[in-house]
Amino acid sequence: MNEKASGKGAELHVIVLGAGMVGVSTALALQQRGHRVLLVDRSGIGRETSYGNAGVIQTEAVEPYAFPRSLHALVNIALKRGSEVNWHLAALPEHARPLLSYWRNSAPRNHARATAQYRHLIADADRYHAPLIEAAKADHLIERKGYRCLFRTAKALDAACAKAEAVRRDHGIAFTAEDGTMLAVAEPAMKLRAAGALRYPQVWTCRDPGALTASYGRLFMQRGGEFSHGDAQSLRADGHGWSVLTEDGRQSAEHVVLALGPWTRHLTERLGYRIPMFRKRGYHRHFAMKEGPAGPMLDAERGVFLAPMERGLRVTTGAEFTAMDAPADSRQIRRAEASSRELFDLGEAVEAAPWFGHRPCMPDMLPVLGEAPRHKGLWLHFGHGHHGFTAGPASAHILAELMSGNPLAVTRALDPARFN
Predict the structure, then answer these.
(1) pLDDT (tens digit per residue) in 338-394
(2) Distance between CA 131 and CA 393 in Å, rounded?
(3) What is the Cα–Cα distance from 267 to 256, expressed in whole angstroms?
(4) Does 257 share its domain with 290?
(5) 309: CATH
(6) Which parts of 122-168 are beta strand (E)?
(7) Rounded CA separation 210/50 (Å)
(8) Chain center to CA of 94
(9) Domain containing 40: what range?
């Protein structure tokens, strides 16, 4: 990252609201710079979206996910033909405007501009995770064997290879193309004869993302940080800066960081900010099995990720557009299970019901990071979409440098003022 030289700022007293990967990483980064930090969450550390993801530190994903622009893909989404996307008519008024902006920002020129900034959060993400993994003694949770994107048809494989070659040329992301025979040797338990796969050998994966986030939280407390259960919605400005109600009473600090992921919008709207975040719901379920994939695998044409986890094989879905408090819709996870059974002999489901959570996404594909335009000491840090688990420590580094008086070159593109 391109750093702008500046003197270190004075010690700050900060409350970080939200103890997912982004919030915990923020607390650690601020603590490392000598600031006093209280981490607050209603549930605990790593219990929400950071628990439920696919567990990939996805350093190859330097280009943000673009809105599909081909007519074929749009028709499939509109008719709900695939398992990649599900949507609900009642939720469209909430999602329509940001999704239209997302579609516009996914045009090639706009997407290239976003990529130029986004890659700073992704390409070196493992470099920011590495010292935390070591210090937290969490190496047993990490695999450094890469993962595969599987393609069932030759047409899809050829298109993906061409795209991967362009990314390798532009960003130096290594990959290996495997034909059907190579894939069958690498994945002997797979039942279906697929066209092939792309393997990303340098990507790290995690066998329990919630446990990794929790280990970072324990590290924060071992280093002298404080954690308290509390209600983020109780946040209010006071004479000392900001305060929030916790199990230990109302706590105050000069600064507060909102790192609440999909729940951040409740607070920003109350404070008068119209930040066009939209939420993608995702589902997962674990399955017991004797023989499964040799490593994590994205079934690219079905939008399903299969990840060997401590609890079994985690089968995760694509995106569902629905209201935050809408009941679970099992359609996607049932399709994901069915397509996964085409590949491997899945055993029984481990959980009685699937887990689901929400990804906080921005229409320009960049997170919101910086001080709120009209509230001194109110810092926003959310909107990482599919990659909060990957980018949390790198993004926290950017915010902590900014709060310490050392803004980096990428900071301007992430500033909350771009929406206000």
Answers:
(1) 999 999 999 999 999 999 999 999 999 999 999 999 999 999 999 999 999 999 999
(2) 10
(3) 12
(4) no
(5) 3.30.9.10
(6) 142-143, 147-151
(7) 6
(8) 21
(9) 1-66+106-138+208-276+362-420
